[in-house]
Write a structure and sequence with these properties.
The chain has 13 helices and 19 strands. The structure holds pyridoxal-5'-phosphate (PLP). The site of pyridoxal-5'-phosphate has 13 residues, from α3 and α4.
Length: 458
Protein backbone atom coordinates (compact mmCIF):
# COMPACT_ATOMS: atom_id res chain seq x y z
CA UNK A 1 0.00 0.00 0.00
CA UNK A 2 1.31 3.43 -0.69
CA UNK A 3 0.35 7.08 -0.66
CA UNK A 4 1.42 9.49 -3.39
CA UNK A 5 4.89 10.86 -2.79
CA UNK A 6 5.44 14.50 -3.67
CA UNK A 7 8.29 15.08 -6.09
CA UNK A 8 10.12 18.32 -6.52
CA UNK A 9 9.29 20.07 -9.74
CA UNK A 10 12.74 20.77 -11.20
CA UNK A 11 11.43 23.90 -12.88
CA UNK A 12 11.21 25.67 -9.49
CA UNK A 13 14.97 25.23 -8.95
CA UNK A 14 16.53 28.58 -9.70
CA UNK A 15 19.91 28.48 -8.04
CA UNK A 16 22.06 25.94 -6.26
CA UNK A 17 20.48 26.76 -2.88
CA UNK A 18 17.21 25.51 -4.32
CA UNK A 19 18.60 22.09 -4.92
CA UNK A 20 16.59 21.28 -1.82
CA UNK A 21 14.15 24.14 -1.30
CA UNK A 22 12.94 24.86 2.22
CA UNK A 23 9.78 26.57 3.44
CA UNK A 24 9.82 30.14 4.66
CA UNK A 25 12.03 31.69 2.03
CA UNK A 26 9.42 34.32 1.19
CA UNK A 27 8.35 35.19 4.71
CA UNK A 28 8.50 38.94 5.32
CA UNK A 29 9.38 40.27 8.77
CA UNK A 30 9.18 43.85 9.99
CA UNK A 31 12.29 45.90 10.79
CA UNK A 32 12.30 48.31 13.76
CA UNK A 33 13.82 50.90 11.47
CA UNK A 34 10.84 50.65 9.10
CA UNK A 35 9.81 48.42 6.22
CA UNK A 36 10.04 44.66 5.80
CA UNK A 37 12.60 42.15 4.58
CA UNK A 38 12.51 38.46 3.81
CA UNK A 39 13.47 36.52 6.92
CA UNK A 40 17.01 35.11 6.89
CA UNK A 41 16.71 31.88 8.90
CA UNK A 42 20.25 31.35 10.17
CA UNK A 43 19.47 29.23 13.21
CA UNK A 44 19.38 25.80 11.60
CA UNK A 45 21.32 24.29 14.51
CA UNK A 46 18.34 24.95 16.79
CA UNK A 47 15.62 23.92 14.30
CA UNK A 48 16.01 23.84 10.54
CA UNK A 49 13.18 24.93 8.26
CA UNK A 50 11.13 22.14 6.71
CA UNK A 51 12.13 20.93 3.30
CA UNK A 52 9.47 21.74 0.73
CA UNK A 53 9.53 18.06 -0.23
CA UNK A 54 8.93 16.97 3.38
CA UNK A 55 6.01 19.34 3.61
CA UNK A 56 4.59 18.07 0.30
CA UNK A 57 5.01 14.44 1.35
CA UNK A 58 3.25 15.10 4.65
CA UNK A 59 0.44 16.95 2.85
CA UNK A 60 0.11 14.09 0.35
CA UNK A 61 -0.23 11.59 3.19
CA UNK A 62 -2.50 13.66 5.45
CA UNK A 63 -5.83 12.55 3.87
CA UNK A 64 -4.76 8.93 4.35
CA UNK A 65 -3.84 9.40 8.01
CA UNK A 66 -4.93 6.59 10.30
CA UNK A 67 -3.96 4.72 13.44
CA UNK A 68 -0.77 2.66 13.40
CA UNK A 69 -0.59 -1.00 14.54
CA UNK A 70 -4.11 -0.85 15.90
CA UNK A 71 -6.79 -0.74 13.23
CA UNK A 72 -8.48 -3.05 10.76
CA UNK A 73 -9.44 -0.27 8.38
CA UNK A 74 -7.72 0.38 5.08
CA UNK A 75 -6.17 3.66 6.18
CA UNK A 76 -4.92 2.13 9.42
CA UNK A 77 -3.19 -0.57 7.45
CA UNK A 78 -1.82 1.94 5.01
CA UNK A 79 -0.52 4.10 7.88
CA UNK A 80 1.06 1.05 9.52
CA UNK A 81 2.81 0.21 6.26
CA UNK A 82 3.99 3.80 5.95
CA UNK A 83 5.30 3.75 9.53
CA UNK A 84 7.20 0.47 9.09
CA UNK A 85 8.51 1.44 5.66
CA UNK A 86 9.84 4.63 7.24
CA UNK A 87 11.84 2.44 9.60
CA UNK A 88 13.40 0.72 6.60
CA UNK A 89 14.16 4.06 4.94
CA UNK A 90 15.88 5.37 8.08
CA UNK A 91 17.84 2.12 8.44
CA UNK A 92 19.06 2.52 4.86
CA UNK A 93 19.85 6.21 5.39
CA UNK A 94 22.02 5.29 8.39
CA UNK A 95 23.60 2.21 6.83
CA UNK A 96 22.28 0.04 9.65
CA UNK A 97 23.54 -3.51 10.14
CA UNK A 98 21.31 -6.55 9.83
CA UNK A 99 20.51 -6.80 13.55
CA UNK A 100 20.18 -3.11 14.30
CA UNK A 101 16.91 -1.69 15.57
CA UNK A 102 15.50 1.69 14.54
CA UNK A 103 13.43 3.10 17.39
CA UNK A 104 11.33 6.18 16.76
CA UNK A 105 11.46 8.71 19.59
CA UNK A 106 10.55 12.35 20.07
CA UNK A 107 14.05 13.82 19.61
CA UNK A 108 17.77 13.31 20.21
CA UNK A 109 17.22 14.11 23.88
CA UNK A 110 14.55 11.43 24.06
CA UNK A 111 16.75 8.95 22.19
CA UNK A 112 19.69 9.41 24.55
CA UNK A 113 17.44 9.20 27.60
CA UNK A 114 16.06 5.96 26.17
CA UNK A 115 19.57 4.58 25.79
CA UNK A 116 20.41 5.72 29.33
CA UNK A 117 17.38 3.79 30.55
CA UNK A 118 18.53 0.53 28.95
CA UNK A 119 22.25 0.47 29.78
CA UNK A 120 23.03 -2.66 31.79
CA UNK A 121 23.54 -2.47 35.53
CA UNK A 122 27.04 -1.38 36.50
CA UNK A 123 27.62 0.37 33.17
CA UNK A 124 30.25 3.11 33.22
CA UNK A 125 29.61 6.06 30.91
CA UNK A 126 32.29 8.32 29.42
CA UNK A 127 31.32 11.76 28.10
CA UNK A 128 33.38 14.77 27.11
CA UNK A 129 32.45 17.91 29.02
CA UNK A 130 32.08 19.60 25.64
CA UNK A 131 28.87 17.74 24.83
CA UNK A 132 25.40 19.19 24.45
CA UNK A 133 23.40 18.75 27.67
CA UNK A 134 21.33 16.08 25.90
CA UNK A 135 24.47 13.91 25.84
CA UNK A 136 25.91 15.14 29.11
CA UNK A 137 23.00 14.68 31.45
CA UNK A 138 20.82 11.59 30.85
CA UNK A 139 23.16 9.09 32.57
CA UNK A 140 21.80 9.60 36.04
CA UNK A 141 21.89 5.99 37.23
CA UNK A 142 25.27 5.17 35.71
CA UNK A 143 28.75 5.98 36.94
CA UNK A 144 29.74 8.86 34.65
CA UNK A 145 33.26 10.02 33.90
CA UNK A 146 33.35 13.52 32.43
CA UNK A 147 36.38 13.96 30.20
CA UNK A 148 38.12 17.33 29.91
CA UNK A 149 37.79 19.31 26.70
CA UNK A 150 40.40 18.17 24.18
CA UNK A 151 42.10 20.85 22.04
CA UNK A 152 42.73 18.60 19.02
CA UNK A 153 40.89 15.59 17.57
CA UNK A 154 43.96 13.49 18.35
CA UNK A 155 43.83 14.63 21.97
CA UNK A 156 40.19 13.56 22.12
CA UNK A 157 41.13 10.02 21.10
CA UNK A 158 44.07 9.92 23.53
CA UNK A 159 41.96 11.27 26.40
CA UNK A 160 39.31 8.62 25.82
CA UNK A 161 41.88 5.88 25.41
CA UNK A 162 43.53 6.82 28.72
CA UNK A 163 40.24 7.02 30.57
CA UNK A 164 39.07 3.64 29.32
CA UNK A 165 42.43 2.06 30.08
CA UNK A 166 42.25 3.37 33.66
CA UNK A 167 38.94 1.63 34.39
CA UNK A 168 39.06 -0.31 37.62
CA UNK A 169 36.44 -2.79 36.41
CA UNK A 170 37.42 -3.38 32.77
CA UNK A 171 34.93 -6.23 32.43
CA UNK A 172 31.94 -4.10 33.40
CA UNK A 173 29.89 -2.71 30.50
CA UNK A 174 30.97 0.75 29.35
CA UNK A 175 29.49 3.30 27.01
CA UNK A 176 31.02 6.35 25.34
CA UNK A 177 28.71 9.14 24.19
CA UNK A 178 30.11 11.57 21.65
CA UNK A 179 28.79 14.17 19.26
CA UNK A 180 29.54 14.04 15.54
CA UNK A 181 29.53 17.80 15.02
CA UNK A 182 29.52 20.37 17.82
CA UNK A 183 26.39 22.46 18.16
CA UNK A 184 28.61 25.34 19.29
CA UNK A 185 31.61 25.35 16.98
CA UNK A 186 30.29 23.09 14.20
CA UNK A 187 33.59 21.22 14.38
CA UNK A 188 33.65 17.57 13.36
CA UNK A 189 34.72 15.04 15.96
CA UNK A 190 36.91 12.04 15.11
CA UNK A 191 34.05 9.59 15.45
CA UNK A 192 35.62 6.64 13.67
CA UNK A 193 38.80 6.90 15.78
CA UNK A 194 36.83 7.31 19.01
CA UNK A 195 34.77 4.25 18.11
CA UNK A 196 37.94 2.26 17.51
CA UNK A 197 39.33 3.37 20.88
CA UNK A 198 36.07 2.48 22.64
CA UNK A 199 35.90 -0.95 21.06
CA UNK A 200 39.58 -1.64 21.75
CA UNK A 201 38.67 -1.38 25.45
CA UNK A 202 35.47 -3.39 25.16
CA UNK A 203 33.28 -0.29 25.46
CA UNK A 204 30.39 0.71 23.24
CA UNK A 205 29.77 4.09 21.67
CA UNK A 206 26.70 6.15 20.82
CA UNK A 207 26.94 8.94 18.28
CA UNK A 208 24.92 12.08 18.92
CA UNK A 209 24.31 12.97 15.28
CA UNK A 210 21.86 15.82 15.94
CA UNK A 211 24.17 18.28 14.18
CA UNK A 212 25.95 15.82 11.92
CA UNK A 213 23.12 14.02 10.15
CA UNK A 214 21.64 17.16 8.53
CA UNK A 215 25.02 18.05 7.01
CA UNK A 216 26.92 14.82 6.40
CA UNK A 217 26.28 11.20 5.55
CA UNK A 218 26.18 9.08 8.71
CA UNK A 219 26.91 5.40 8.23
CA UNK A 220 26.65 3.31 11.40
CA UNK A 221 28.52 0.34 9.97
CA UNK A 222 31.24 2.41 8.33
CA UNK A 223 31.82 4.57 11.43
CA UNK A 224 31.52 1.38 13.49
CA UNK A 225 29.44 3.05 16.19
CA UNK A 226 26.94 1.08 18.23
CA UNK A 227 24.08 3.60 18.19
CA UNK A 228 23.15 6.82 16.46
CA UNK A 229 20.67 9.41 17.72
CA UNK A 230 19.23 12.36 15.80
CA UNK A 231 16.21 14.68 15.67
CA UNK A 232 13.76 15.24 12.83
CA UNK A 233 13.44 18.97 13.42
CA UNK A 234 17.15 19.51 12.74
CA UNK A 235 16.92 17.28 9.66
CA UNK A 236 14.34 19.53 7.96
CA UNK A 237 11.43 17.41 9.28
CA UNK A 238 9.85 19.46 12.08
CA UNK A 239 7.03 17.17 13.15
CA UNK A 240 8.19 16.06 16.58
CA UNK A 241 10.05 12.83 16.00
CA UNK A 242 13.56 11.49 16.45
CA UNK A 243 15.55 8.30 16.05
CA UNK A 244 17.69 5.96 18.10
CA UNK A 245 19.21 3.30 15.86
CA UNK A 246 21.72 0.59 16.58
CA UNK A 247 22.52 -2.58 18.48
CA UNK A 248 19.49 -4.51 19.59
CA UNK A 249 20.83 -6.47 22.59
CA UNK A 250 20.73 -3.77 25.29
CA UNK A 251 17.50 -2.38 23.84
CA UNK A 252 15.70 -5.71 23.84
CA UNK A 253 17.03 -6.95 27.17
CA UNK A 254 15.78 -3.91 29.08
CA UNK A 255 12.36 -3.06 30.40
CA UNK A 256 10.39 -0.82 28.01
CA UNK A 257 11.24 2.87 28.20
CA UNK A 258 7.52 3.60 28.47
CA UNK A 259 5.10 0.90 29.54
CA UNK A 260 1.80 0.63 27.73
CA UNK A 261 -0.04 -0.49 24.63
CA UNK A 262 2.12 -1.00 21.58
CA UNK A 263 5.10 -2.14 23.70
CA UNK A 264 3.27 -5.17 25.06
CA UNK A 265 2.50 -8.31 23.07
CA UNK A 266 0.21 -9.93 25.65
CA UNK A 267 -1.06 -8.99 29.09
CA UNK A 268 -2.84 -11.48 31.35
CA UNK A 269 -4.21 -11.44 34.87
CA UNK A 270 -2.35 -13.73 37.28
CA UNK A 271 -3.96 -15.92 39.87
CA UNK A 272 -2.52 -13.67 42.59
CA UNK A 273 -4.36 -10.70 41.10
CA UNK A 274 -1.42 -9.04 39.37
CA UNK A 275 -0.64 -9.04 35.63
CA UNK A 276 1.90 -10.86 33.51
CA UNK A 277 3.22 -8.93 30.54
CA UNK A 278 5.05 -10.20 27.53
CA UNK A 279 6.88 -7.27 25.92
CA UNK A 280 7.68 -7.01 22.24
CA UNK A 281 11.17 -8.03 21.20
CA UNK A 282 11.43 -5.46 18.44
CA UNK A 283 11.76 -1.66 18.38
CA UNK A 284 8.07 -1.52 19.33
CA UNK A 285 9.18 -2.46 22.88
CA UNK A 286 10.26 1.17 23.33
CA UNK A 287 7.49 2.83 21.33
CA UNK A 288 4.51 2.45 23.66
CA UNK A 289 1.46 4.55 22.89
CA UNK A 290 0.12 5.69 19.53
CA UNK A 291 3.14 6.65 17.46
CA UNK A 292 3.73 9.95 15.69
CA UNK A 293 3.24 8.64 12.17
CA UNK A 294 3.39 12.10 10.57
CA UNK A 295 6.67 12.82 12.34
CA UNK A 296 8.12 9.46 11.34
CA UNK A 297 6.92 9.85 7.74
CA UNK A 298 8.52 13.30 7.62
CA UNK A 299 11.88 11.94 8.81
CA UNK A 300 11.80 9.24 6.15
CA UNK A 301 10.90 11.87 3.56
CA UNK A 302 13.85 14.03 4.64
CA UNK A 303 16.18 11.02 4.48
CA UNK A 304 15.06 10.32 0.92
CA UNK A 305 15.34 13.97 -0.10
CA UNK A 306 18.88 14.33 1.27
CA UNK A 307 19.93 11.06 -0.34
CA UNK A 308 18.40 12.06 -3.69
CA UNK A 309 20.05 15.49 -3.60
CA UNK A 310 23.38 13.82 -2.83
CA UNK A 311 25.49 14.70 0.18
CA UNK A 312 28.50 15.48 -2.01
CA UNK A 313 26.81 18.48 -3.56
CA UNK A 314 25.12 19.51 -0.28
CA UNK A 315 28.44 19.43 1.57
CA UNK A 316 30.23 21.28 -1.22
CA UNK A 317 27.65 24.04 -1.30
CA UNK A 318 27.51 24.34 2.50
CA UNK A 319 31.29 24.61 2.64
CA UNK A 320 31.23 27.60 0.28
CA UNK A 321 28.82 29.28 2.71
CA UNK A 322 31.03 28.35 5.69
CA UNK A 323 34.02 29.92 3.89
CA UNK A 324 32.02 33.06 3.08
CA UNK A 325 31.02 33.53 6.72
CA UNK A 326 34.46 32.75 8.16
CA UNK A 327 36.22 35.01 5.64
CA UNK A 328 33.72 37.79 6.28
CA UNK A 329 34.04 37.53 10.06
CA UNK A 330 37.85 37.40 9.78
CA UNK A 331 37.72 40.91 8.31
CA UNK A 332 36.17 42.25 11.52
CA UNK A 333 38.84 42.66 14.17
CA UNK A 334 36.33 42.83 17.00
CA UNK A 335 34.93 39.38 16.17
CA UNK A 336 36.36 36.23 17.73
CA UNK A 337 35.14 32.94 16.26
CA UNK A 338 34.97 30.13 18.83
CA UNK A 339 36.88 26.98 18.11
CA UNK A 340 38.08 23.99 20.08
CA UNK A 341 40.27 22.37 17.45
CA UNK A 342 41.69 25.48 15.73
CA UNK A 343 40.64 27.82 12.94
CA UNK A 344 41.24 25.31 10.14
CA UNK A 345 39.33 22.44 11.74
CA UNK A 346 36.67 20.99 9.42
CA UNK A 347 33.19 22.08 10.46
CA UNK A 348 29.58 22.04 9.36
CA UNK A 349 27.54 25.21 8.88
CA UNK A 350 27.48 26.11 12.59
CA UNK A 351 29.66 29.03 13.71
CA UNK A 352 29.68 30.80 17.09
CA UNK A 353 31.44 34.03 17.89
CA UNK A 354 31.68 36.94 20.31
CA UNK A 355 32.09 40.60 19.47
CA UNK A 356 34.31 42.87 21.57
CA UNK A 357 32.27 45.48 23.38
CA UNK A 358 28.96 43.78 22.64
CA UNK A 359 26.68 41.70 24.77
CA UNK A 360 25.80 38.74 22.51
CA UNK A 361 22.11 39.09 23.28
CA UNK A 362 22.24 42.73 22.19
CA UNK A 363 24.07 41.76 18.99
CA UNK A 364 21.59 39.01 18.14
CA UNK A 365 18.65 41.32 18.90
CA UNK A 366 20.06 43.97 16.55
CA UNK A 367 20.60 41.39 13.77
CA UNK A 368 16.96 40.43 14.09
CA UNK A 369 15.34 43.81 14.59
CA UNK A 370 17.42 45.82 12.11
CA UNK A 371 18.30 43.20 9.44
CA UNK A 372 15.64 40.48 9.68
CA UNK A 373 18.27 37.85 10.50
CA UNK A 374 17.43 35.04 12.95
CA UNK A 375 20.46 33.70 14.86
CA UNK A 376 20.79 32.35 18.39
CA UNK A 377 22.65 33.80 21.34
CA UNK A 378 23.42 32.20 24.69
CA UNK A 379 25.21 29.10 25.88
CA UNK A 380 23.47 26.74 23.44
CA UNK A 381 22.73 24.06 26.06
CA UNK A 382 26.45 23.30 26.18
CA UNK A 383 27.41 25.42 29.19
CA UNK A 384 30.73 23.76 30.04
CA UNK A 385 31.95 24.00 26.43
CA UNK A 386 31.02 27.65 25.94
CA UNK A 387 32.55 28.56 29.29
CA UNK A 388 35.76 26.76 28.32
CA UNK A 389 35.85 28.58 24.98
CA UNK A 390 35.14 31.97 26.55
CA UNK A 391 37.33 31.35 29.59
CA UNK A 392 34.44 32.51 31.76
CA UNK A 393 33.51 31.70 35.32
CA UNK A 394 30.75 29.09 35.73
CA UNK A 395 29.19 31.23 38.46
CA UNK A 396 28.55 34.02 35.95
CA UNK A 397 26.14 32.03 33.85
CA UNK A 398 22.38 31.74 33.89
CA UNK A 399 19.94 29.18 32.57
CA UNK A 400 20.31 27.40 29.24
CA UNK A 401 20.13 30.06 26.55
CA UNK A 402 19.36 32.93 28.92
CA UNK A 403 21.44 35.98 28.14
CA UNK A 404 22.97 38.05 30.90
CA UNK A 405 23.74 41.70 31.38
CA UNK A 406 22.59 44.89 29.77
CA UNK A 407 23.03 46.10 26.19
CA UNK A 408 26.60 47.31 25.75
CA UNK A 409 28.11 45.14 28.49
CA UNK A 410 30.77 42.59 27.63
CA UNK A 411 29.12 39.26 26.89
CA UNK A 412 29.54 36.02 28.75
CA UNK A 413 27.52 34.31 26.03
CA UNK A 414 28.07 33.89 22.31
CA UNK A 415 26.20 34.43 19.05
CA UNK A 416 25.65 31.42 16.78
CA UNK A 417 24.91 31.50 13.07
CA UNK A 418 23.96 28.23 11.37
CA UNK A 419 22.68 27.20 7.97
CA UNK A 420 22.44 24.29 5.54
CA UNK A 421 20.28 23.01 2.72
CA UNK A 422 18.25 25.72 1.04
CA UNK A 423 20.17 28.64 2.55
CA UNK A 424 20.53 31.26 -0.16
CA UNK A 425 23.85 33.12 -0.62
CA UNK A 426 21.98 36.34 0.09
CA UNK A 427 21.27 35.27 3.68
CA UNK A 428 24.89 34.75 4.61
CA UNK A 429 25.93 37.83 2.64
CA UNK A 430 23.34 39.92 4.49
CA UNK A 431 24.60 38.44 7.76
CA UNK A 432 28.27 39.27 7.08
CA UNK A 433 27.32 42.79 5.91
CA UNK A 434 25.19 43.32 9.02
CA UNK A 435 28.00 42.20 11.37
CA UNK A 436 30.39 44.64 9.71
CA UNK A 437 27.89 47.49 9.82
CA UNK A 438 26.91 46.90 13.46
CA UNK A 439 30.54 46.76 14.57
CA UNK A 440 31.43 49.86 12.55
CA UNK A 441 28.37 52.05 13.18
CA UNK A 442 26.72 50.53 16.24
CA UNK A 443 23.05 49.69 16.57
CA UNK A 444 20.61 52.18 15.05
CA UNK A 445 17.98 51.46 17.69
CA UNK A 446 17.82 51.37 21.47
CA UNK A 447 17.44 48.05 23.24
CA UNK A 448 16.48 47.07 26.75
CA UNK A 449 16.47 43.86 28.77
CA UNK A 450 13.10 42.20 29.26
CA UNK A 451 12.79 38.86 31.08
CA UNK A 452 16.51 38.33 30.59
CA UNK A 453 16.39 38.96 26.83
CA UNK A 454 17.53 41.96 24.88
CA UNK A 455 14.63 43.46 22.92
CA UNK A 456 14.11 46.65 20.93
CA UNK A 457 12.97 49.46 23.20
CA UNK A 458 9.75 50.19 21.33
C1 LIG B 1 24.56 18.15 19.44
C2 LIG B 1 23.16 18.13 19.95
N1 LIG B 1 22.73 17.06 20.62
C3 LIG B 1 21.48 16.97 21.08
C4 LIG B 1 20.59 17.99 20.92
C5 LIG B 1 19.21 17.86 21.43
O1 LIG B 1 18.32 17.81 20.38
P1 LIG B 1 16.75 17.89 20.65
O2 LIG B 1 16.51 19.23 21.28
O3 LIG B 1 16.14 17.77 19.32
O4 LIG B 1 16.43 16.78 21.55
C6 LIG B 1 20.98 19.14 20.25
C7 LIG B 1 20.06 20.28 20.10
O5 LIG B 1 20.44 21.38 19.83
C8 LIG B 1 22.30 19.21 19.74
O6 LIG B 1 22.73 20.28 19.09
Amino acid sequence: MSVPSAAINPSVCQDSSENLPVLGRDVLVPLVTGGEVTYAALDYAASAPALQRVWDDVAAYAPYYGSVHRGAGYLSQLSTDLFENSRTTVAEFLGCRQDDQVVFTRSTTDSLNLLAAVVPDGCEVFVFETEHHASLLPWRDAAVTYLNAPRTPQQAVETLDRALAARTTPDAPALVCVTGASNVTGELWPVRELAAAAHAHGARIVLDAAQLAPHHPVDIAELDVDWVAFSGHKLYAPFGSGVLAGRSDWLLAAEPYLAGGGASRTVARRADGGVDVEWHTTAARHEAGSPNVIGVHSIASACRALTDAGFDSLVAREQTLVRKVLDGLAEVEAVQVLSLFGDDAPRVGVISFVVDGWNSSHFAAALSAEYGIGVRDGLFCAHPLVRTLLGSDPQDQGECGAPEGEPGERSLNAVRVSFGAGTPDEHVERFVGAVKELVRDGARWNYRTEDGRCVPAV
